[in-house]
Amino acid sequence: MTESPPDQTMVLSALAAKRAELDALRMRLSEQMARLEQDLASIDGAMRLFVRPAESDDPLRQEAITGVLPTFQRGELAEEAIAILRATSYPLCTQEIATAICIRRALSLEPAALLYLGQLIVANLRRAQKRGLVHEVGHTSRRAVLWFAPAPEPK
Q1: Is the pTM of this model over 0.90?
Q2: pLDDT digits (tens, 9 = 90+) for 80-117
Q3: pLDDT of 7-18, one tens digit each?
Q4: Which helix (H) or strand (E) holds 105?
Q5: Is residue 116 helix, strand or coil?
Q6: Residue 145: beta bridge partners?
Q7: How far apart are CA 23 and CA 31, in angstroms?
Q8: CA 125 to chain centre
Q9: 78 within 8 A of 54, measured Cβ to Cβ
Q10: C-alpha angle 50-56-57 in degrees, rounded to nearest 5
Q11: CA distance 147 to 139
């Protein structure tokens, strides 16, 4: 085996040291980003504590939100959400399910109405989870629940 000239060894050594330095910086920044995401989620939750009671106490506001949503027959929203989950081979969060329902029904909802639809979906999926139709399989980085529905068992 031939030996590298001293200049090449020094250059390679300097490059390896610089790479290690940048990798360490990347890890510190990644950890810092994770802490910032957690802080943002906590602040969002605290803000909701102050905003939601005022919205729910105002019947006109609640009527305005529910007035733009289509009416769902009993069990229809749960069936549609489960069908969307079964059509995918990977877990979806509630917002993705709500968006898929809006696309299927050609709806364009305001953020408040989309949030309310998401709450309805969560309530329906929690009931479906008790019956074993869907499973909570994890959370996103923003702590949104990930849902999965296995294929139905053949009869």
Answers
A1: no
A2: 999 999 988 888 999 899 888 888 887 777 787 888 88
A3: 888 999 899 999
A4: none
A5: helix
A6: 139
A7: 12
A8: 15
A9: no
A10: 95
A11: 9
